[in-house]
Amino acid sequence: MSFRKGAPVSGMLPDELQENPTAAALADIATTGNLAYGELTIEVAPSSILEALRRAKHQLGFERLSTVTGVDRFPAEPRFEVVYHLQAIQRREWLRLKVRLPGANPEVESAFAVYRSANWYERETFDLFGIRFLNHPDLRRIMMPDDWPGHPLRKDYPVTGERY
Amino acid sequence: MLDTKDPAVINDGGITSELEVERDHDQREHTPGATKTMVLNMGPQHPSTHGVLRLLLELDGETIVKAAPDIGYLHTGIEKEFEVKTYQQGVTLTDRIDYLAPLSNNLCYCLAAEKLLGLEIPPLAQWTRVMLSEFTRLNSHLVWLGTHAIDIGAMSVFLYCFREREEILRVFEMFSGQRMMTSYFRIGGLALPHPRGWQKRVKDFVDIFASRVDEYEELLTSNRIWTGRTKGIGYIPLEDMIDLGVTGPMLRAAGLKIDIRKDAPYSSYEKFDFEVPTRTENDVFSRYVVRIEEMRQSLRIIKQALEGMPSGSHQADAPGIVLPDREKMKTQMEALIYHFKIVTEGFRVPEGEVYMPIESPRGEVGCYMVSDGTQKPYRVHWRGPSFGNLQAIPKMIEGTLIADVIAGLGSMDFVLGDTDR
Questions:
Q1: Is residue B19 part of a domain?
Q2: Which residue of B lies nearest to A89 if distances are taken between CA atoms?
Q3: Containing domain of residue A120, as a range?
Q4: Strand partners, B240
Q5: How does pLDDT run across B62-96, given as a tens digit for each residue?
Q6: Across the interface, do A85 and B80 touch by the CB < 8 Å criterion?
Q7: pLDDT average, residue stretch B136-149
Q8: Which residues neighbour B123 within 8 Å (Cβ) at sequence distance 6 or greater?
Q9: Is the model's pLDDT at A29 over the cut of 90?
Q10: What CATH code is carried by the domain that includes residue B241?
Q11: How far off is chain B from A64, nearest CA to CA, in Å?
């Protein structure tokens, strides 16, 4: 499994993905990718996530953005992953896009410009992980109260206790 | 009267925030000649919001200018909780996410973990899972139908629906010992073997239920008040629904044949013969018709499962993962060791990540599970269908009458536990 180890090689996809049409269309912006458990994962640099989403929607026919969420790899660096799950309804295909963000000031371009369903999912990711989505139309907390300190799904946020 | 050409009225983005409602209201207050509006706070303790949904409505007379849903009142940190429970313990949390469809959620979680583990589930367990998932669909649709009808003013439908729901809960109780928080599906199979005499109870239900669905239809389908309140109400263009993250019966009522049970069959759904009902009207009434028809299809699946239930074990042959048989545990040293290890520390799941979508009564439930190779999930993200569906509320009700809000909300069939997690 390649998703946790080492720095990704730029512009390189592993051999098993060379013939996958979805991977091929994203090959020039992909930093790495894998096909595990029958699920395709493509990682891109944070700067090219909008380009990847646009291509997925308009060229590859992934009409639906099913969910956006985060993973905290604390204390590893880059600390955060933002994970997008897309679905192509007619072709019955799923695609996972992923970007990695640093622990200090994590921010990435909002997917709202391409898929409007990103609205609440990104608000949730912002609320629970503290990842900022640039150019999001309404980036506020959604689950926690507006004056809540800290971001509960971060790994350094305790599970029990009265205060953060 | 409301000027529908006013750019502030037509919200093309399809999203509205609470701030935007207040801003728009203030702006109108201070603009001479502008239509004056009123801001109405609906919920979070409003009976027709089915839980704790808060809606902020900006009204011009009875017309809704802007509407903004506000969620998060039922956030319980379930995703965080998953990270400190072992994999098997996590099953109990899934019941509490969508408390009207506990077994669908159990199934989704177990399938995700089993995908990571590469477990082969015996046919008996798979068929039982299908059968009980369909019972869950019936259960959920009955609660939906009853409360939806009560919202619109048809009191008696609720009583009929809950009469049948009671029978379904008895089936759940028979299998799992629990009426609502069943946790009956476990990673590796089922929690318990089949109870004695389950066939009779299921058969009794199957025999009567088809006529009961007809009864609901008799009460509603051609009822003039019902059709008047539901036909042509709650329209959202299909493209907008897809783009806003809506799934499930709402899409099917708009003519899109989408059902994960058919598109990516899981737990041997491919062995069952059933139809995916669709309509094209895309209003509250068509969503009602789709769900009624889904109940009939679920009944077909339950019948097939009852008649063709395979024999065999209810758990996978995976000694380190499923608890050993009670008798073996008391007589064999090895089984005792496994039992001790599973109970005290759980089992390790190989490193990896999976996304497991299934079709719950409300739409796509997805479990994104990340494992780092330990006994506890590194991260579990729960994609609840209600969360995605609720995003379409402004698009649906802006520009309509306030009385139609209730009908429109009911047709979405959301559960706030599922939205807020």
A1: no
A2: B258
A3: 17-134
A4: none
A5: 888 888 888 888 888 899 999 999 998 999 999 88
A6: no
A7: 92
A8: B268, B310, B312
A9: no
A10: 1.10.645.10
A11: 6
